[in-house]
Design brief:
Cofactor: Ca(2+)
GO molecular function: alpha-amylase activity; metal ion binding; starch binding
Mean pLDDT: 90
Number of domains: 4
Strand order of the largest sheet: 1-2-5-8-9-10-11-12
CATH architecture of the largest domain: Alpha-Beta Barrel
Low-confidence stretches: 6-14, 56-67, 412-417
Family: Belongs to the glycosyl hydrolase 13 family.
Strand content: 25-35%
Number of helices: 9
EC number: 3.2.1.1
CATH superfamily of the largest domain: Glycosidases
InterPro entries: A-amylase_C, Alpha-amylase_C_pro, Alpha_amylase, Carb-bd-like_fold, CBM20, GH, GH13_cat_dom, Glyco_hydro_b
Radius of gyration: 26 Å
Helix content: 10-25%
Largest sheet: 8 strands, parallel, barrel
Structural class: alpha+beta
CATH class of the largest domain: Alpha Beta
Length: about 600
């Protein structure tokens, strides 16, 4: 076992946060777990392990959510060999997590099976799905979100809805959880929990989790606190979407109001049941993302941090995690709130959140004794002293925060270890990061590497505990994943922590432009739009309007993103494409292919 999740997120000295580690394989996660532990997390949440129908571009996403495989279309609950790796590799990940003092929260998809033949072009028939038949499903129907029974029994975006009232189905789902437990996981995230009845959780799923010794949290994608509470009352924690929507829509943005935080979300009603978060693979973050993280990482509840947005070695987040574990505990008491400023006291800390466009200061009451000096552990504000009336003046920078305490702990995992920062200037393609690897566990022992932080331009860096003697190098790879292209030349050493880069082994020297061209008919007043698997092509959105160079020939020039897939759409000029090109996707291997024709049959 790792740090022993108990099923309660009660805040006390020693609590920390979950790192949601998605969009990569089990081996990469394994290689980076020492970094996760060093950063100060106490658990990881990983994607579903079962064999699933996976399409890389099954969703239209943006820079905030991610379109790499997720595993939410189950085909075989008994087979844990998947897109992410083998069952043996999953077991190795769990074992290494426990070695690092981390718990593992597994993602369990118990609401549905893979979508049918006519949904999303996925072409999965019931013959492809072992151990289930049509009689194990609810009848196909579209969800009416005004009808609770429809929400629980109809098909979520075409996904075959399992009938949890069937004893056979329940038996298969129990075996699924048992398989996870046998692999040593410590907790379960119930995917799409609001699409299953509360009675299923109170009478079965939560009891199974108790029997198997598993923490559990349900995904209840609903902005109503009372709705969230209904599922929490079945005996599990719940993802606090009520707080998320308040933070995103009402608080942490240029037009927000800090007063909306007062009493917001499940965390202020039932904090021991609230898993708080700022973004995830479904939901983009608020405008003031870092300020939102400062709130959930210092407040009550059990916070979760999303790896696609926050790297493992993020020093700012590690500092907040250290403060959470060592300074902040118990119930939070609001000391001041107006539209821009929110101040609360928790344990030995005073937290000041400022969403205004200029520095703010305010006198607030505190539990600290008169004459006590308080230090801002984030370094953004000066020391301050409690006056004879028990008040203290606290400050925070514009769109920033401060955490005052009598004593500031070390960031990361603590212990007072000296740290070093490795820095390098090296080119990357769009959607890529630099990963630092080397001869120490904190650099994955020459594995895929620890993802660096881009500090501007082509400059990347990572901060680690000083290992003394060290050899290191960089790798290049997909952001949120791991490095797959090595730096050329000799290794670097501890003697030079900011050396000249040796260049990439694949010869990549930076993004250059490329032109995509296609010949396709359009009606008068229409244009051809180019869309694809990269931000410069709108991530499979409406597309970038092409230029008509002659006749039916259209083209668009973009920065070279490396490997990508693309397609065309047709639509009104000056707008976006609404009619798809037929057939399969094109790739970067052919930038001037034959057009597949339009899906509406238009031929000119």
């Amino acid at each position: 076992m790792g740090s022993s999740l108990t099923g309660s997120a009660a805040a006390e000295i020693g609590d920390s946060a979950v790192y949601q580690y998605y969009h990569t394989d089990w081996t990469t996660i394994t290689n980076n777990l020492s970094g996760v532990a060093d950063a100060g997390y106490d658990a990881i949440q990983v994607p579903p392990a079962q064999f699933s129908r996976i399409y890389k571009y099954e969703r239209q996403n943006d820079e905030y959510t991610y379109d790499l495989p997720l595993g939410y279309q189950p085909i075989d609950f008994t087979n844990f060999d998947s897109e992410f790796g083998t069952e043996a590799e999953y077991q190795a990940m769990v074992d290494e997590a426990h070695e690092q003092g981390l718990d593992v929260i597994a993602d369990a998809v118990m609401n549905h099976l893979a979508a049918g033949d006519n949904a999303f072009d996925r072409h999965v028939s019931m013959d492809d799905i072992p151990r289930f038949s049509e009689r194990d499903l609810h009848p196909e129907c579209q969800i009416d979100y005004n009808d609770p029974q429809s929400v629980e029994n109809c098909w979520l975006v075409g996904l075959r809805d399992l009938d949890q009232d069937s004893s056979y189905v329940r038996g298969e789902l129990y075996n699924y959880l048992q398989k996870y437990a046998d692999l040593g996981v410590d907790g379960i995230r119930f995917d799409a929990a609001k699409h299953m009845s509360e009675s299923f959780f109170s009478n079965y799923a939560n009891q199974w989790a108790d029997e198997l010794g598993l923490y559990r949290v349900g995904e209840v994608l609903q902005g109503s606190t009372s709705y969230n509470q209904q599922y929490a009352d079945t005996g599990m924690s719940v993802t606090d979407y009520a707080l998320f929507y308040t933070m995103k829509e009402d608080v942490f943005n240029s037009g927000g109001d800090m007063n909306a935080l007062e009493g917001a979300g499940l965390v202020n009603q039932d904090p021991t049941s609230a898993m708080t978060f700022v973004s995830n693979h479904d939901s983009a973050p608020p405008e003031y993302e870092r300020l939102a993280y400062a709130y959930i990482l210092t407040y009550e509840g059990y916070p979760r941090v999303y790896n696609h947005r926050i790297g493992i070695s993020d020093e700012e987040i590690s500092t907040l995690l250290s403060l959470r574990r060592n300074v902040l505990s118990g119930a939070a008491t609001t000391r001041y709130v107006d539209s821009e400023l929110y101040v609360f006291e928790r344990g030995d800390g005073l937290v000041v959140l400022n969403r205004g466009n200029s520095q703010r200061s305010e006198w607030v009451q505190t539990n600290q004794a008169s004459g006590t000096t308080l230090t801002d552990c984030t370094g953004s504000s000066s020391d301050t002293q409690v006056n004879s009336d028990g008040y203290v003046q606290v400050s925070a920078p514009a769109v920033g925060y401060a955490v005052y305490s009598t004593e500031c702990p070390e960031s990361g995992s603590g212990g007072g270890t000296e740290q070093v920062t490795l820095q390098i200037d090296a080119p990357t393609a769009s959607g890529e990061s630099i990963f630092f690897t080397g001869s120490t566990g904190s650099l994955t022992n020459w594995g895929g590497g620890v993802e660096g932080t881009n500090t501007g331009g082509d400059t990347w860096e990572v901060t680690i505990d000083d290992p003394g003697t060290l050899e290191w190098k960089t790798r290049r790879g997909p952001a949120g994943g791991s490095g797959d292209v090595w730096e050329s030349g000799d290794n670097h050493s501890e003697a030079n922590l900011s050396p000249t880069h040796n260049g990439w082994s694949d010869g990549f020297e930076g993004n250059t432009g490329l032109t995509i061209q296609v010949e396709a008919p359009t009606a008068s007043g229409e244009s051809v739009y180019f869309t694809g698997s990269t931000e410069s092509l709108t991530n499979w959105g409406g597309g970038i309007e092409g230029t008509n160079v002659s006749g039916d020939i259209w083209e668009v020039s973009i920065e070279d993103p490396g490997s990508f897939e693309w397609k065309t759409r047709r639509g009104p000029s000056g707008s976006s494409g609404d009619v798809w090109e037929s057939g399969g996707n094109h790739s970067d291997g052919n930038l001037s292919p034959t057009h597949n024709g339009w899906s509406d049959g238009y031929s000119g």
